[in-house]
Design a protein that fits this description.
The chain has 539 residues and is of the alpha+beta class. The protein contains 14 helices and 16 strands. The strands form four sheets. The protein has a six-stranded mixed sheet with strand order 5-6-4-3-14-13, with no helix packed on it. Strands 7-8-9-10-12-11 form a six-stranded mixed sheet, covered by helices on one side. A two-stranded antiparallel sheet has the order 1-2. Helix 5 runs parallel beside helix 6 and helix 7 packs antiparallel against helix 8.
């Protein structure tokens, strides 16, 4: 065998090799000639000796660093800005067959699947019974609902429910002769989606009549709205070879639309619930897959490429009145001087001075609060029932036997019944805990009904101008009513002399203290100072 030039050959005897076998690897040291050649070729790098003081046994003792100055440490600043963790928007459509009693079951599914919005058909809601959807589980616990109910008949109906942080607005709702519909606008951070919910009752019209009227409806919708997603229960056997289905597919292609459901959505093996999007728009789908059966229809889950903010937060402003120096605040109040003859100027100067003092002694602070959906009423017993239901559902999907389907329906009803009972017990317990505390009880009812405290007043720069406009509006309204009643014979307007507020009587210090002591311990956002500061003023 020919070896390259410069190769060092080393021969080992059998005894040496047997000795190397029994020795630890770190003790196997080649001779100096081999080490020198490896170093010359740049293959071997000698490690320097360890630092420290060498002791008598050959080990080195590392000197510990002393006199550490902790003031030299640099502490990183805490960042209050939340990172924008993004996820894909997930949506869902399902025929519920009455949300009146299935709202808890559907709401639990939305939270488990982390659904951002859902089109729900056959809600069976009614405008005469608004409490059914206002107090629904789909209008609380992190979700809100908008309905398009059937008029003059029971059953039917289309609804959209979405997360509370999504800006949602209903644009259209109504019914044609062959189907019911609703159009909603959903505003996300990166895109605005227009979602159309469709429910077609099979008994109203033939499939051909429905296809003709449906595409007449789409001819008005498609040019008007961008980023369309059309979902719902079409009750059309989309995989059958019929003239209605052929016309439906050809019309979709002509309008530049694409249908994504390619699996059965009904217990009898038909694809009735569809998801349709535009071919060239911002809503691209990552997946479209079947979900659990909540009725004789299964849910259709869709994951889009649209990004959403995973963390929703809001800013809260407040003052720490409990930490305020009451003596210092009282001293500054005694030194406050207001010199004016006008009542309006006196009030303006007083509010300005009080605000300056509050900013000094109790400055306005701001914090960011993360909006998290409350935890649902879910226990280990509910979880075990859910596992049994899912197991029976998978068995029925695999074999498609009537006996397996009956077992699955029984497990589903048992899970739904237990879930509703747990919710009722939880809500009843919260009402009992709020006994004697009306504020806590009203807040609980407010959260339960999904109502929000929004200021109905229009935004203005000057509040006094807004108050004057309201006063002028009502004065003009009263004047017009009086003028319209002059033509009646039996009408005799009452003329009253309203004395003007031109003179005021001065009050003593004891009378003012008595008035302040009789005030209720409440305050609102319009008050210039809280009740705590008013008590300090009286003292």
């Amino acid at each position: 065998m020919d070896y390259p030039e410069g190769t060092i050959r080393r021969s080992y005897s059998a005894s040496e090799l047997m000795r190397f076998r029994s020795l630890p690897r770190q003790w196997i040291i080649p001779n100096q000639e081999v080490l020198s050649k490896l170093k010359y070729l740049g293959i071997l790098n000698f490690r320097r000796a360890r630092a420290g003081i060498k002791t008598h046994n050959g080990h080195r003792r590392i000197k510990k660093q002393t006199c550490v100055n902790l003031s030299n440490l640099i502490y990183p600043k805490r960042c209050n800005t939340l990172s924008n963790f993004t996820e894909n928007v997930t949506c869902l459509t399902v025929n519920c067959r009455s949300l009146v009693r299935k709202d808890v079951l559907v709401g639990q599914l939305l939270r488990e699947q982390k659904v951002d919005f859902a089109i729900l058909t056959e809600t069976w809601y009614s405008d005469e019974k608004q409490y059914q959807f206002e107090t629904s589980d789909l209008n609380q616990n992190g979700y809100k609902i908008s309905v398009s109910n059937r008029q003059n008949r029971i059953g039917g109906g289309v609804a959209l429910t979405c997360r509370s942080g999504v800006n949602m607005r209903r644009l259209l709702s109504g019914a044609k002769s062959s189907f019911e519909y609703g159009v909603w606008q959903l505003i996300f951070k990166s895109i605005t989606i227009h979602c159309v919910g469709i429910y077609r009752p099979p008994s109203l019209a033939t499939p051909n009549q429905f296809v003709t009227e449906f595409f007449q409806f789409l001819e008005d919708i498609v040019p008007k709205y961008l980023n369309l997603m059309i979902m719902g229960d079409f009750n059309l056997h989309i995989h059958d070879d019929s003239s209605a289905v052929s016309e439906f597919n050809n019309s979709l292609f002509a309008l530049g639309l694409l249908q994504h459901v390619d699996f059965p959505t009904h217990v009898h093996g038909h694809s009735l619930d569809l998801v349709i999007t535009e071919l060239a728009n911002g809503v691209d789908l990552l997946s479209c897959e079947p979900g659990p059966f909540l009725s004789d229809h299964c849910a259709v889950k869709v994951v889009t490429r649209v990004k959403k903010e995973n963390i929703v937060s809001k800013s809260i402003s407040f003052r720490h009145f409990k930490d305020m120096d009451n003596e210092g605040f009282a001293n500054d109040l005694n030194q406050m001087a207001i010199c004016t003859d006008s009542v309006e100027n006196f009030v303006d100067q007083f509010e300005t001075e009080i605000e300056k003092l509050l900013n000094t002694h109790a400055p306005m602070k701001e914090k960011i609060q993360i909006c998290r959906a409350p935890k649902p009423w879910f226990s280990e017993s509910i979880m075990s029932l859910k596992r049994v239901m899912r197991r029976s559902e998978r068995l029925w999907r695999k074999h498609r036997q009537p006996k397996d389907y009956e077992i699955y329906k029984s497990a589903l009803h048992k899970y739904h019944y237990e879930l509703r009972n747990v919710k009722q017990l939880t809500l009843s317990q919260k009402v009992i805990e709020s006994k004697g505390n009306s504020k806590k009880l009203y807040q609980f009812v407010k959260d339960l009904t999904g109502s929000k405290s929004e200021n109905p007043m229009p935004p203005v720069e000057d509040e006094n101008t807004l108050a004057d406009k309201f006063a002028d509006h009502f004065m003009d309204k009263i004047k017009k009513i009086r003028e319209s009643l002059k033509d009646f014979e039996n009408y005799k307007p009452l003329v009253k002399d309203v004395p003007p507020f031109g003179s005021f009587e001065s009050l003593s210090e004891d009378e003012i203290k008595m008035l302040i002591s009789q005030l209720q311990t409440k305050s609102c956002e319009l008050d210039i100072s809280a009740h705590q500061s008013i008590e300090i003023i009286s003292q």
